[in-house]
């Protein structure tokens, strides 16, 4: 796959973001070191604590992302910690879009600080995990992707979907990857493995978080279908929703797979999650709502991550 001008600019933008941030962090570390030099040294105790933690861990991970990494009670990172013994430093925030992660800078700044903290305690991350894109597709603007059911061109609008996934989200992902890569090179002297995951096939049944209350209310998909005349009142109409949404998920996953296959990004790995969770009659055992897995669903997703992590 050859990079077009937009992709090259995205990589350059991410690299520049990281360079600016690394410069600011070098100054901040100098200030911190001066303050520590004036205080009572505690390096021996800190070093011993770090060594003890290392012996009890499967390794350290850094994570940036959305609600799949920041979900109440259960998420991918919690399972990686509890079931596989990893120590996870996360700056993920539920509800964040991939564009926000790429261009607002907050998660990247926090990621650098977490990395610096780990290094102070003698720990080097095994990998960086990235999760994002679902909030850019689903939600209040989801219906904009859909042509009305009574339209001669009913269904997802291919031009809009392609523009969203192959331009906006691809560019944002490349920007983040370039920034994270540069941060690792500037801090560690080398890149770290970066793991990207897509999403499995969700079921647009109108279920939100906790019945539509709380920090992630929802629903995020069914209202958009209903607004465009796809009511889902028959088995045929229900299947039409699922088929349409599946095509969007395939396009999104395909885009991430292409990024991971770029020759200039050999440290980027794609975690395939399609057909990990059921979208059949038993789907509620695997999906807590339209966008998020149940606990056993997150366990299956984390297992897919572990399949990749053990190869690094």
Main attributes?
312 residues; globular; two-stranded antiparallel sheet; Rossmann fold; 5-stranded parallel β-sheet
What do these coordinates show?
The chain is α/β, with parallel strands linked by helices and 312 residues long. The protein has one domain (5-26, 49-309): Rossmann fold (3-Layer(aba) Sandwich). Helix content is 51%, strand content 9%. The strands form 2 sheets. Strands 2-1-3-6-7 form a 5-stranded parallel sheet, with helices on both faces. It has a two-stranded antiparallel ribbon with strand order 4-5. Helix 5 (106-120) packs parallel to helix 7. It is globular. The protein starts with a helix and ends with a helix. The relative contact order is 0.15. One of its GO terms (molecular function) is hydrolase activity, acting on ester bonds.
Q: Could you say which structural class the secondary elements and strand pairing correspond to?
A: alpha/beta
What average pLDDT do the residues reach?
A: 89
The CATH architecture designation is 3-Layer(aba) Sandwich
N/C terminus separation: 24 Å
Low-confidence stretches: none
CATH homology-level superfamily: SGNH hydrolase
GO molecular function: hydrolase activity, acting on ester bonds
InterPro entries: SGNH_hydro_sf (IPR036514)
């Amino acid at each position: 796959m050859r990079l077009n001008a937009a992709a090259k600019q995205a990589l350059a933008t991410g690299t520049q973001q990281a360079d600016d941030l690394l410069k600011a962090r070098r100054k901040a570390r100098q200030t911190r070191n001066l303050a520590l030099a004036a205080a009572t040294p505690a390096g021996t105790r800190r070093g011993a604590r770090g060594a003890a933690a290392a012996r009890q861990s499967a390794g350290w991970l850094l994570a940036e992302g959305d609600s799949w990494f920041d979900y109440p009670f259960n998420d991918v990172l919690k399972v990686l910690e509890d079931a596989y013994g990893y120590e996870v430093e996360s700056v993920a925030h539920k509800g964040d879009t991939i564009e926000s992660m790429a261009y607002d800078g907050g998660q990247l700044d926090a990621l650098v600080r977490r990395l610096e903290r780990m290094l102070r305690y003698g720990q080097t991350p095994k990998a960086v995990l990235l999760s994002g894109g679902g909030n850019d597709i689903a939600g209040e603007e989801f219906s904009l992707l859909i042509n009305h059911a009574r339209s001669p061109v009913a269904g997802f609008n291919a031009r809009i979907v392609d523009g969203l996934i192959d331009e906006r989200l691809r560019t944002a992902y490349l920007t983040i990857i370039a920034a994270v890569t540069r941060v690792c090179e500037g801090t560690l002297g080398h890149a770290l493995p970066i793991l990207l995951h897509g999403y499995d096939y969700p079921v647009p049944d109108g279920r939100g978080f906790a019945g539509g209350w709380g920090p992630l209310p929802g629903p995020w998909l069914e209202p958009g279908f209903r607004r465009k005349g796809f009511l889902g009142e028959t088995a045929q109409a229900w299947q039409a929703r699922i088929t349409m949404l599946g095509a969007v998920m395939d396009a999104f996953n395909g885009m991430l797979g292409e990024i991971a296959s770029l020759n200039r990004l050999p440290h980027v790995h794609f975690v395939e999650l399609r057909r990990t969770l059921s979208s059949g009659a038993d789907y509620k055992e695997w999906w807590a709502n339209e966008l998020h897995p149940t606990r056993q669903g997150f366990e299956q997703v984390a297992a897919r991550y572990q399949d990749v992590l053990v190869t690094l």
